Amino acid sequence: MNISCIIVDDEPIAREIIKTYIEQVPYLTLAASCENAFEAMEILNKKDINLIILDINMPRLSGFEMLRSLKIYPAVIITSAYPEYALEGFELSVTDYLLKPFSFARFVQATEKIVNRATENLPVMKDEDLFLMVKSDKKLTKIFFEDISYVEAYGNYIFIHTSQERIMSKQTLIQFEQQLPASKFTRIHKSYIASVKNIKYIEGNEISIGGKKLPVGKVYRENLMRSLR
Q1: How many other CB atoms are found less than 10 A from the CB of residue 155?
Q2: pTM of the predicted model, to two decimals?
Q3: For 100-148, what is the HEC assignment?
Q4: N or C, which end of the chain has less CB nearby within 10 Å?
Q5: What's the CA gap between 195 and 108, in Å, rounded?
Q6: Residue 122, pLDDT score
Q7: How far is the C-alpha of 141 from the C-alpha of 220, rounded, in Å?
Q8: Which residues form the signal peptide (predicted)?
């Protein structure tokens, strides 16, 4: 597993310490180091990010304000010198809350929670060529790959749109994508995965699939065209 992450902190020393920590963890890859929330939001719009390592107190827009402004965001580890904000952080579904200064061991412990959570939430594979089992509403639902039109991200949940129904599951789009056969599905947007065989046509920056028109992100267009060849 490879976790692409960004650092968001207005303190240069803090960013450098976290960068050093990330470089020592084999499954972490640093995609960007941002000194404010606006830089981070720009990166989130352009790249596939799995983890935000986020400071709270920053000028203009705080870490919490940034999260509230985002419709969808990946896993978050808060880094702060203020313990009194921890409850608010967990109300925003952050993975962990690290009090500065924190050790490398404590940092690794926080990132391992993300790895463990991803493993726990992965759909149970029964036959990778035919179907998977997805946990939805306290039950496991069998979904055939050929029935899936597209998958839509909704915060920490996904909607799986099939030819018969829409199924909601508590997991991220990235977690679900890892269980799909790459030959059958392609990422078209930070919020959507599409079934290659069910794409009816491409028009401009949209595709037609399952009776819907979905946006195609600029960074995903080349991959989409490659999957259709």
Answers
A1: 12
A2: 0.56
A3: CCCCHHHHHHHHHHHHHHHHHHCCEEEECCCEEEEEECCEEEEEEHHHE
A4: C
A5: 36
A6: 47
A7: 29
A8: none
